[in-house]
Amino acid sequence: MVDLKLPEIKDLTRIERIGAHSHIRGLGLDDALEARNVSQGMVGQKSARKAAGIILQMIKEGKIAGRAVLLAGQPGTGKTAIAMGMAKALGDETPFAMMAGSEIFSLEMSKTEALTQAFRSAIGVRIKEETEILEGEVVEIQIDRPAVAGAASKTGKLTLKTTDMETVYDLGTKMIEALGKEKVQSGDVIAIDKASGKITKLGRSFARSRDYDAMGPQTRFVQCPDGELQKRKEVVHVVTLHEIDVINSRTQGFLALFTGDTGEILSEVREQIDSKVAEWREEGKAEIIPGVLFIDEVHMLDIECFSYLNRALENEMAPILVVATNRGITRIRGTNYRGPHGMPIDFLDRLLIISTQPYTEEEIRQILYIRCEEEDVEMSGDAKLLLTKIGYETSLRYAIHLITAAALACQKRKGKEVDIEDVRRVYELFMDVKRSTQFMMDYQHQFMFNEIPEVNDGSAMAE
Ligand SMILES: Nc1ncnc2c1ncn2[C@@H]1O[C@H](COP(=O)(O)OP(=O)(O)O)[C@@H](O)[C@H]1O
Ligand SMILES: [Mg+2]
């Protein structure tokens, strides 16, 4: 395997549903890394956000490898939200891989393999490639239509110019199709990648700015390029080590990247890739970008995983590990010992700990307000007040869930705005944990669950 295959440029558009954290667009920090009160969808939890911002700064500078951060706090205090904020703030270039602790038990591979894949998904390789491109203004496109309809191949000529020269190129069927697809016309300034044949429209030439035809309001005007038509250009793309692994693993096609069905990847493959990447780094062709691996509900990992993490963090290429948990002192999986957050002491010792605090009523009000906007729900002031009260007394998540439910109740009565009655109605329809627990206590003799012996383990930090 001398030539490593690299994935094609990722150009997938995602249709996003409104997820639990879709309102989070960053950490909401100012330039001095101080948390703004309400910004980028983030409310309160300032010291945790600021701490996360400092970690981000360390990641961006790219100097440190293998640090680990623990977000610890009660359920619903925004641990996952902060991790999502970090991901957004990092931008597209820096890889951010995310998994839940329990995932490693459900994949069809060993736990350490799953963790290795997760680690390598969080390590980016920025690869520089030189390509040759043709860049110029289209003078003329001339296509010779074959005399017989349906005859095999079309041919044609493309005339391109810069301010200094003009050249005519022969066109094959593929290029003709590509030009048609991009709707290239004379007067456009285009770039053609010589290796792949990919055409990019850079804009319309200023010389044509007086033409009336074929101009939308978004037409961008550019200067006709100068110098040679043929130029060398450096293109940079970022792929993760895991992507390179999958594509080069003979047992799995690259489609495995989409299905996630990657199976185990041979360690020889990884070794070869690592040494190739090291070679590229020495030649100055590639750079390592350590990203972030976020493991939510980290108490679900067992002792083997923790020991793997200890080792993996010492690797020179290791990403920044961010883990989150809502557990207090509880059993470490795979052992009979208890540890803070369900983690062994030697692993804990490596962590910088960020703790999240419960929200004030005002903060809950603001988060609910943002969620109403996000879910496109109009709600009266009174209803919001009641919802805030509910959020404060029960839980933030419960209150967030009631937003959609109340909106549906409102829709059903053909109302325009969710009001206090709708909220009250869904509050009665759907129970929060406290009321549900109370119900169970009152009627437990009618259920079968008292057959299970009492375990006092894995108790959440809350209450
Ligand atoms: N500071 C915050 N600003 C805005 N939304 C928040 C904030 N904290 C939590 N949320 C939202 O509240 C809900 C519960 O928070 P979550 O991050 O899932 O809690 P945790 O992971 O700590 O259990 C999510 O929808 C989350 O996006
Ligand atoms: Mg969470």
Automatic annotation (TrEMBL):
This is RuvB-like helicase. The keyword Chloroplast applies. GO terms for molecular function: ATP binding; DNA helicase activity; hydrolase activity. The keyword rRNA-binding does not apply. Residues 65-358 form the AAA+ ATPase domain. Belongs to the RuvB family. One of its GO terms (biological process) is DNA repair. Its EC number is 3.6.4.12. InterPro entries: AAA+_ATPase, P-loop_NTPase, RuvB-like, RuvB-like_C, RuvBL1/2_DNA/RNA_bd_dom, TIP49_P-loop. GO terms for cellular component: nucleus. It holds the Pfam family TIP49. The lineage of its organism: Eukaryota, Viridiplantae, Streptophyta, Embryophyta, Tracheophyta. It catalyses: ATP + H2O = ADP + phosphate + H(+).
